[in-house]
Amino acid sequence: MVTNTIKKQRVPNSERRRSSIKSVLDSALSLFVTRGYDATSMDDIAGQAGLTKGAVYFYFKDKLSLLEALLLRTDKELIDPIIAKIGASNGSARDRIIMLTNWFAIVGAERKELPLLHVLVSLEMHGRGNRIEEMVRKTYKDLQNAIAEVTRVGQLSGEFTSDIPPEYQAAVIVALIDGLLLEWHRRGDQLDGRALAHGARNMILNGIAATRQPA
Amino acid sequence: MVTNTIKKQRVPNSERRRSSIKSVLDSALSLFVTRGYDATSMDDIAGQAGLTKGAVYFYFKDKLSLLEALLLRTDKELIDPIIAKIGASNGSARDRIIMLTNWFAIVGAERKELPLLHVLVSLEMHGRGNRIEEMVRKTYKDLQNAIAEVTRVGQLSGEFTSDIPPEYQAAVIVALIDGLLLEWHRRGDQLDGRALAHGARNMILNGIAATRQPA
Amino acid sequence: MVTNTIKKQRVPNSERRRSSIKSVLDSALSLFVTRGYDATSMDDIAGQAGLTKGAVYFYFKDKLSLLEALLLRTDKELIDPIIAKIGASNGSARDRIIMLTNWFAIVGAERKELPLLHVLVSLEMHGRGNRIEEMVRKTYKDLQNAIAEVTRVGQLSGEFTSDIPPEYQAAVIVALIDGLLLEWHRRGDQLDGRALAHGARNMILNGIAATRQPA
Amino acid sequence: MVTNTIKKQRVPNSERRRSSIKSVLDSALSLFVTRGYDATSMDDIAGQAGLTKGAVYFYFKDKLSLLEALLLRTDKELIDPIIAKIGASNGSARDRIIMLTNWFAIVGAERKELPLLHVLVSLEMHGRGNRIEEMVRKTYKDLQNAIAEVTRVGQLSGEFTSDIPPEYQAAVIVALIDGLLLEWHRRGDQLDGRALAHGARNMILNGIAATRQPA
DNA sequence: TATGAATGAGAGTTCATTCAT
DNA sequence: GATGAATGAACTCTCATTCAT
């Protein structure tokens, strides 16, 4: 009853806007990932962001647009950088695949939710025919194309096995990453992240390597 | 006013019962997998099964119990057999891993929905703390234990690399299978299932193989 | 605490259905007319019908469909009969116009809401481009066509003035009826319905009559 | 960072005030008439006026006050002048009724929305028991009184039929005008305004005329 | 003067579930 | 066994209104 009424701070509007939007997106991210999109209500998101529903609707036209903004942000922070890194690298194909696995291992360890968002959303939105489905599809495609390109190079240089067409090799690699993220999501408390990442890297590198010749 | 009411049945009740339950479970399976559990209404399920909601409630206490029965059936048809097969096999560890990948490749091709159910449900139910979560966790654990056991044998016999602890190797293998099922779910129309399965088997076998010695 | 719990009566389902639908439509009619469509909530309607919102949605897909059903019912009870009567009559054109004005005077006196529904809905839905707009437009057109036809006959027989094209004459007659219904709606408590109807009939009959020749 | 902030005005404040208010009222008029009062949001009004909601609230206490101001303005431009004209005229009763119909025909043709406002608002506000309802009632009463007065004169002079009490005759005339405005509102695109006005004038003049004697 | 941010109440709609028939 | 009717809670979204800047 005493000092619950803080003078609503003297914050410039532009700053307030930025911070409110960030709160909303952060709340949405954590809730969408832990509960799922449908199972998260706008009230939940607003509440966790310290706002009311109405305020959320002030910034985002509707729930789907909120998700859209979130995916865009995640693309920018998670997917675009690794695609760029892989593309810009001078290293061998193998080195670049290592860059890839490391990237997801690190982000997965530090900000779990980020890489999970796309996987989970792609599954929940499956078959709904909305613009989100298309967005996620494109993100996946971009990532797979980048990996396929590396694979192609590795096959030409003899680093990687040529048994599998590059696009399928890329699909398998992405599948493994997705699967691991989900496993990490489901059993993160019971697993040693480092050991898991090590196992994954091992599987990928040996899995795609050219059969080693006798010395 | 006379005989408009044809006696609707002449089928023994037990038979009817069995067929109604099967209809409901089949409908639920296809809907849960394509739309998700939450996004599927009891009306949808009943409608697709050719019944009314009330009838579904006659057979299943509530929606969650329906899902439970479905998971049980799937365990029996999909998971239990492969665990048994692997356990009973006399083949080498490598052969048994091949049995595993083939099993999922075949079932994934013929009855897509079956293996997808557990993956999707495990994600949608994540964190809800209900009995389903526990059920799925157990199924995964059983499968991973079986695979870990094979891995252990393979490591001892020198077939497989010993770099990775068996439980983590198993986790990675399951992750890859899950990831592939999801990829198959998302892009099935654009992918050649055989090529994907081939890529996966290649990745797993090479990925876990002991580094080949010089001849 | 004594007998508040009446054994929910032993009413056959078909009867219950009929009576529930009627309650809902009746409530909707009276509320739509007194408050307007938008200003009436589904809760209001359900409450006045002695049901819950959910029950209303059991019978009507959505609010607009409820309105649609209501308009259909009103067409059947109010508009179709008078169009039929006018068409079937052997009387003079003048007699048939009298039939028309009497019809609206009687219905307006006894069941005020019935003839008001179309007028009010046509105004509230104006410009929304939904199916209701189209429905009401059609109803008006049918009525005007019937009146125009009578007018045409009256003009040919020399009963009515030929100064005004029949369709416009019909439009003016309908406009007068609409205007009177609205006036009756707004000030019904302060007006003598009989006097008003008398004034209207007088205006119409003299208004459309051929200028009387010298004897 | 330098002069991005152009001083937005150089207009004397009183001028600005006047013009903002006018914008708001004009927007409100067109929106209230085309969509209705309830269905028009303060945002719609502000947007069409080139302002924000806040600005509208600066000039008008609330939505109802905005409507009130609008009705006042419309009274001044539409109703008061014709009442004054009729009262001041030296012409015959018939001439004065012609003045009336012409007035509405002209304003209806040139500024449709003006005369529609009262009709539509009177219907939408019906039964809400707010001050608007009272305002509109008074406007109608004033107009009807003026017409009744003319009618009385016409009856005394023998120009008009004495069958109908003057107040009822006035009510019928107003009803016809209202009905025609609504018809014009609903079907304006399909009707010839001139023909409609002609039909209306004809109906009124013949409708209220004393039965013509043989020459 | 005017804006942008935020609130809170309420609307339409969906859906798991219950129960009398 | 199965249906149809009904409930009640929850959810998305809208909007008049307020207030600090």
Explain this structure to me?
Four copies of one chain form a homotetramer. The first copy, chain A, has 215 residues and is an all-alpha fold. The first copy, chain A, has two domains: 14-61, Orthogonal Bundle (Arc Repressor Mutant, subunit A), CATH 1.10.10; 63-208, Tetracycline Repressor, domain 2 (Orthogonal Bundle). The first copy, chain A, is built from nine helices and no strands. Chain A has helices at 13-35, 42-49, 53-59, 63-88, 93-111, 113-124, 131-156, 166-187, 193-208. The longest helix of chain A is centred in the middle third of the chain and has 26 residues, at 63-88. The radius of gyration of chain A is 21 Å and the shape is elongated. The first copy, chain A, starts with 12 loop residues before the first helix and ends in a 7-residue tail after the last helix. Residues 1-9 of chain A have low confidence and may be disordered. Chains in contact: A-B, C-D. Chains A and B meet through helix 6, helix 8 and helix 9 of A and helix 6, helix 8 and helix 9 of B. Chain A binds a DNA duplex (21 and 21 nucleotides) through residues 8, 10, 12-13, 16-17, 20, 41-43, 51-55, 57-59, 62-63.
